[in-house]
Amino acid sequence: MKVLIIAASDSDLGVMCSACKVLDEFGVEYEMTISSAHRSPDRTRKLIEKAKTDEVKVIIAGAGLAAHLAGAVAAEFSLPVIGVPIQAGALEGIDSLLSTLQMPPGIPVATVAINGALNAGILAVQILATSDKNLEDKLIAYKKKLAKGVEEKSRNLKK
Length: 159
Prior knowledge:
Mean pLDDT: 95
Helix content: 40-55%
Shape: globular
Distance between the termini: 47 Å
Strand content: 15-25%
Radius of gyration: 16 Å
CATH architecture: 3-Layer(aba) Sandwich
Number of helices: 6
């Protein structure tokens, strides 16, 4: 397994599945699970320890509200952690965005947009592609496909 996806709650799974779809598209091995920095800190620590022995290269962590999951993971995991702030509560995800972004020096979390699990999946692929030429080629093809889609939409406007 190359990527571990951790959702803080089952209510976050719908958003986090976007990362799974991307990883499936690129043929990247992953596992998705649920663990909370607040409600199940021991489980979270055990998952991180297992990720180290399983040679996981990237962890994607998604949480709403106080959103300490990605930071808690980054404090214990030396490889890249991507945080996905989840839209929830009265602040519509702004609180989770700030909680995920505002990490102390030395404990970075690569943070994507609120509900940005799709981009988290792409970022994980980009990280893995730094040492995998086949994955890099797939990524180049994916981005060319995105560009062609924009060109096609532009042509359709002119009709």
